[in-house]
Specification:
Helix 8 runs antiparallel to helix 9. The two termini are 80 Å apart. This protein is an alpha/beta fold. The chain has 23 helices and 25 strands. It is rod-shaped and about 195 Å long. The protein folds into four domains: 84 residues; 170 residues, 2-Layer Sandwich (Beta-Lactamase), CATH 3.30.450; 146 residues, Alpha-Beta Plaits (2-Layer Sandwich); 237 residues, Alpha-Beta Barrel (TIM Barrel). The protein binds ligand C2E and calcium ion (2 copies). The site of ligand C2E has 24 residues, from strand 18, helix 13, helix 14 and strand 22.
Length: 706
């Protein structure tokens, strides 16, 4: 039970963690997906735009390429230029038109040696070497060398970027000789207008021409003859993914906010639940380890506390466990009711709580059983004594004065690890204390265990003996006090175990404690009845244990047995000691009445040894009284004992109840008791308990004597 709550608390924690981790993973995945989508959409669009820009440049170059080819590879042009009419030809065909021609702004015809033959910039003469430098001459040289192919590259002229296409002027039929040709070049300025139309055609919004790459924009380099950028086409990225993300951003934020609220709520709920579980667990633990009535520890609490203390051996003073059982609690409960009984337990608990400085824990481990844990060097005997003294003081409850006592058994920790073993030892000592007569304290010793082992061995032997019918009766004669004639026999149980005689004073109580007495008692009755059939003139006395009499089926069993054995109930006398009767008088009376109705007689056994009272003689309607041997022995000591004896017998006589004297060993005892009024004598003087055969002999002798 105390384990269950922490497990629940742990599972709440685990569930909370799982939810958090799941939410974090889902959130992370979501964020990752959104970000990936956004960036790949952006990257895809940038990629497209870059390709578009490159195609724009390529197509611009291609157009210039075609234009220069159409004009440079021309038979008439070639003829005119090579025949000394170059100046006029250049001006009339290209220089004039350069003023406002959409395909180029300028034209230059350059000699193989780099000389400027004729050049016009928007209709005006100009020197390309001055505007474009050595690089232009390099391009001219390259175009002249690769006369079949035009060379198209970008140049820088001040702030302007200019696309320059150059090709050798040549006849349509490819010349086969190695001659050097003069080179025709067209110049196209990349104006803002050009950039604008490129932007429209290639869907490159906000395209600009710039001289340096702008890292915030997408850039495509415009390379010169050496492959070095002279400028850039630059335009802002469209970032469609980012734009989409911007549109959905409020929703994403809302989602994140909701998720955060959810997670916070989960954490809060988890913590609240864990706290609640912990509180419940603490309450359950308290409940599981404490006694409701007294507020003391209960058995479980005691075990836990002992376990804890035993684990600290060596770091604390020695430990002794005292177990305490209230004497006379049941009568208080019976007489005043449970409410008063409970109040008494609470008062006892209060008294025990502060009984000694070294008593560090007090527990109530059963109805009226308490445990005290002593941690300290004091002699446990002193502590037990002082506790017993405290409990001997009467308790006041609702104006009643209630006295109880207690018995204590204690055990020191020895080398014990297991609290249950410590408890068992103290319990063993307590049991011994109760056996020895209550109101005392007993220390555990190894002997108690040995004794317990011996008894439990004996108990299993006894069980076997009962099963095997090994316990058999001997019979002791009961003689008429006046004539000495044997009138009856008393059956006395005998058991030989492993060659030793075990006395009934040992095995009868053992049979009573171990639940064997009902079976053993009936067995004795059957064997006695069977033997007594041989002596039809004698009465048969059989001893009955209190426990048997309290068994509701006892009367029925006896009558049944007699019927089966065809034994006259009028011959049977059942002997009972009174102590028994008082523990359950109603049930005893019912059984006695039922059996008496069938003709069975009852004798009150052991009268005078403590329990028996004249009251019981009348209450239960006894037919005979047996005076205990202890009273008979008084005959031998002094005069006063005889007085008591005689008074007792005359009291019985006054009630009309005949008296048997037990344990008569001497003639003098026989004389005194006969005179005192006993009509029947039993004892070694008359005859020892003997076998059925010997009884038959005794009867035969008696018959002979008569
Ligand atoms: P009890 O019923 O008082 O039996 C008489 C006891 O006194 C017997 O002891 C008997 O042997 C002993 N006794 C008889 N005459 C003399 C004598 O002159 N001197 C001395 N010193 N002793 C004498 P036993 O047989 O040892 O029985 C002891 C007790 O065991 C019996 O006391 C009876 O209470 C109980 N018991 C014996 N057999 C049975 C039985 O079958 N059932 C039950 N429930 N109890 C039995
Ligand atoms: Ca008896
Ligand atoms: Ca007796």
């Amino acid at each position: 039970m105390p384990q269950a709550q922490p497990i629940k608390t742990r599972s709440v924690f685990a569930i909370t963690c799982v939810v958090l981790v799941l939410a974090a993973v889902i959130g992370g995945l979501g964020a990752h997906v959104v970000s990936t989508m956004r960036h790949s959409a952006d990257a895809m669009d940038d990629e497209r735009a870059l390709r578009a820009a490159q195609s724009a440049i390529s197509s611009m170059k291609l157009r210039m390429n075609n234009t220069i080819r159409d004009n440079a590879v021309w038979d008439e042009g070639y003829d005119a230029i090579t025949n000394g009419q170059a100046q006029e030809w250049v001006y009339s065909n290209w220089g004039k038109t350069s003023e406002d021609y959409p395909l180029y702004e300028a034209v230059a015809l350059t000699g193989v040696d780099g000389s400027n033959i004729s050049s016009f910039w928007k209709g005006q003469k100009f020197d390309p070497r001055a505007s474009f430098g050595q690089l232009f001459l390099d391009q001219v040289a390259k175009a002249s060398a690769e006369n079949a192919n035009p060379v198209v590259t970008f140049f820088r002229r001040g702030d302007e970027i200019v696309l320059v296409a150059s090709q050798a002027v040549q006849p349509f039929e490819q010349p086969t000789d190695d001659r050097d040709y003069s080179v025709l070049s067209f110049f196209k300025v990349l104006s803002a207008q050009v950039a604008g139309s490129m932007a429209t055609e290639y869907q490159l919004d906000d395209l600009i021409l710039s001289q340096a790459a702008d890292t915030r924009l997408l850039n495509v380099a415009l390379d010169d003859l050496r492959g070095r950028p002279v400028g850039y086409l630059s335009w802002p990225t469209k970032s469609p993914g980012t734009k989409v993300f911007e549109t959905v951003r409020p929703y994403v934020i809302a989602c994140i906010a909701l998720l955060s609220i959810f997670l916070t709520a989960v954490i809060a709920a988890g913590r609240a639940e864990a706290r609640r579980m912990k509180r419940l667990a603490e309450a359950a633990r308290l409940q599981a380890t404490h006694d409701n009535l007294s507020g003391l520890l209960n058995r479980m609490g005691l075990i836990e506390s002992l376990k804890h203390l035993l684990g600290q051996r060596g770091h604390r003073p020695p430990l002794v466990l005292h177990l305490l059982d209230l004497d006379g609690f049941k009568p208080v409960n019976d007489a005043w009711g449970h409410a008063v009984g409970d109040m008494l337990l609470v008062l006892v608990a209060d008294a025990l709580r502060g009984c000694h400085a070294e008593v560090t824990a007090v527990a109530r481990i059963g109805g009226d059983e308490f445990a005290l844990v002593q941690v300290g060097p004091a002699d446990p005997v002193d502590i037990a004594r002082s506790v017993l003294a405290v409990l001997r003081h009467p308790f006041q409850i609702d104006g009643r004065t209630i006295e109880v006592g207690a018995t204590i058994g204690f055990a020191d920790e020895d080398a014990i690890q297991d609290p249950h073993e410590l408890l068992r030892r103290a319990d063993m000592a307590l049991y011994q204390g109760k056996e020895d007569g209550r109101g005392r304290h007993v220390a555990y010793s190894r002997d108690l265990d040995l004794e317990r082992e011996r008894i439990s061995e004996l108990e299993s032997d006894l069980r076997r003996a009962v099963e095997r019918n090994e316990i058999r009766p001997l019979f002791q004669p009961l003689a008429c006090a006046v004539t000495g004639q044997v009138k009856g026999v008393e059956a006395l149980a005998r058991w030989r175990s492993d060659g030793d005689n075990v006395g009934p004073d040992v095995f009868i109580p053992l049979a009573e404690r171990s639940g064997l007495i009902d079976r053993l008692g009936l067995q004795m009755l059957r064997l006695s009845v069977q033997a007594a059939k041989a002596w039809p003139d004698l009465s048969l006395s059989v001893n009955v244990s209190p426990i048997q009499l309290c068994n509701p089926s006892f009367a029925g069993d006896v009558l049944n047995l007699l019927a089966v054995e065809s034994f006259d109930p009028k011959r049977l006398v059942l002997e009972i000691t009174e102590g028994v009767l008082m523990s359950n008088p109603d049930q005893a009376k019912r059984a006695i009445d039922a059996l008496k109705a069938a003709g069975i007689r009852f004798a009150l056994d052991d009268f005078g040894c403590g329990y028996a009272s004249i009251g019981a003689l009348r209450q239960f309607g006894f037919d005979r009284m047996k005076i205990d041997r202890s009273l008979v022995l008084a005959v031998d000591s002094d005069g006063s004992g005889i007085g008591v004896l005689k008074a007792t017998i005359s009291l019985a006589a006054a009630l009309g109840i005949p008296v048997t004297a037990e344990g008569i060993e001497t003639g003098r005892q026989a004389d005194v008791l006969r005179e005192a009024g006993c009509d029947q004598l039993q004892g070694y003087l008359v005859g020892r308990p003997m076998s059925p055969e010997d009884i038959s002999k005794v009867i035969a002798l008696g018959d002979e004597a008569a």
